[in-house]
Amino acid sequence: MNATQELAAFLRTRRERLDPGDLGLPSRRQTRRTPGLRREEVAELAGVSVDYIVRLEQGRGLRPSADVVEALARALRLTPVERAYLFNLAQQRPRDAGKPATVAAPPLARLVADLSPLPAMLVNHRYDILAWNREMTRLLLDFGTLPPSQRNAMWLCLRHPEIRDLYADRERVVREGIAHLRAAWAAYPEDRALTDLIAECMTHDAEFARWWAERDIKVNGRGHKVVRHPDAGVIAVQSEVLMPLQDPDQRLLIFRAADEESQSALDRLCAR
């Protein structure tokens, strides 16, 4: 398909499916020759010219700006999925693409609990820990005992005394985390909390500052970690990261034992 022609057809179909009465538009005595809204009405709602709407719907090579796409999405009462589709067709990025999740979506929080006995937790793009289950607290740390400002996986790995020395392969874990944060920083340029987190880490950790300057980029979806637990000994785990379609800013992190010895150690740890 041609993206320009699809953009034109998509705008037309969404305009034609709307009921003027549902939008509070005044009724007109004359019979409407076309279903839905008129181009003039869409133009008024979106704050653009009628000629601009005509040219868009005729597929005449226009590439609307992000602001215009947002205005059209509001005028046409698009659903979140339709809005994202319109932005993709226009090859633009939503202004609120950097708006992060700060609390766990309730269905995902329940899923984290239901994943027991697998250690699991929910994080956002900047590694803020939003939800966790009992097994994860046994393996790593009881995050509920920490103030919310410290419930960040990168901050804990760098500055918390228990977590700092927990990973046998700490350098690789931190480097991969930094590479993820750099990708997140580019994807969420208006996230001040993420910028502040990076600045704090660079100020207080020389290794972080040095590795950040290398500009490695990586989004971690699957990995391997070795935990040196003070009570259960060495536990090797495979990690899997899943991104829910409904809440794409939230990431479900699940650990599984990498071998039989690690599984036995994890079982003993969680049984206490």
TrEMBL record:
PROSITE patterns: HTH_CROC1
Region of interest (Disordered), residue spans: 18-37
Entry-linked CDD domains: HTH_XRE (cd00093)
The HTH cro/C1-type domain, residue ranges: 36-83
InterPro entries: Cro/C1-type_HTH (IPR001387), Lambda_DNA-bd_dom_sf (IPR010982), MLTR_LBD (IPR041413)
A Pfam family this chain is assigned to: HTH_31
Listed transmembrane segments: none
Gene3D superfamilies recorded: 3.30.450.180, lambda repressor-like DNA-binding domains
PANTHER family in UniProt: BLL4672 PROTEIN-RELATED
Stated name of the protein: Helix-turn-helix transcriptional regulator
